[in-house]
Amino acid sequence: MLILTRKVNQSIVIGDHIEIVIVEVRGDQVKIGIKAPKDISVHRSEVYKEIQEQNKQATKTLSIDSLKKIENLFPKKKT
């Protein structure tokens, strides 16, 4: 882990397209601004972890019984 000291209005650059700016320091809280391209997702770590967990749950394989129940919801077309 890289640890840097910054003051208000100073920034850190990551790669060519991401900049982290220190906006305010108040007590034990630091307010930061993040400049990044729109195609790069930026989340608080707790939100990111929740998204990852939801994605993991969504990709779990359905059981054969579950698939049969889903299949029964759609009537077969008569040909």
Plain-language structure description:
The protein has 79 residues and is α+β, with helices and mostly antiparallel strands. It is 29% helix and 25% strand. It is built from two helices and three strands; from the N terminus they run βββαα. Strands 1-2-3 form a three-stranded antiparallel beta sheet, with no helix packed on it. The protein is elongated. The N and C termini lie far apart (64 Å).
In a nutshell, what does this entry contain?
The protein is of the alpha+beta class.
Note the main sheet. 3 strands, antiparallel
Structural class: alpha+beta
Number of helical segments?
A: 2
DSSP helix fraction: 25-40%
Averaging pLDDT over every residue, what do you get?
89
SSE string, helix = H, strand = E?
Answer: EEEHH
Spans of 5+ residues with little confidence (pLDDT < 50)?
none
Total number of distinct structural domains: 1
Structural Rg: 23 Å
Strand order of the largest sheet: 1-2-3
Overall shape: it is: elongated
Strand content: 25-35%
List the helices and strands and how they pair.
Layout: E1 11-14, E2 18-26, E3 29-35, H1 45-58, H2 64-72
Antiparallel strand pairs: 1-2, 2-3
Properties at a glance:
three-stranded antiparallel beta sheet, single chain, alpha+beta, about 80 residues, 2 helices, about 30% helix
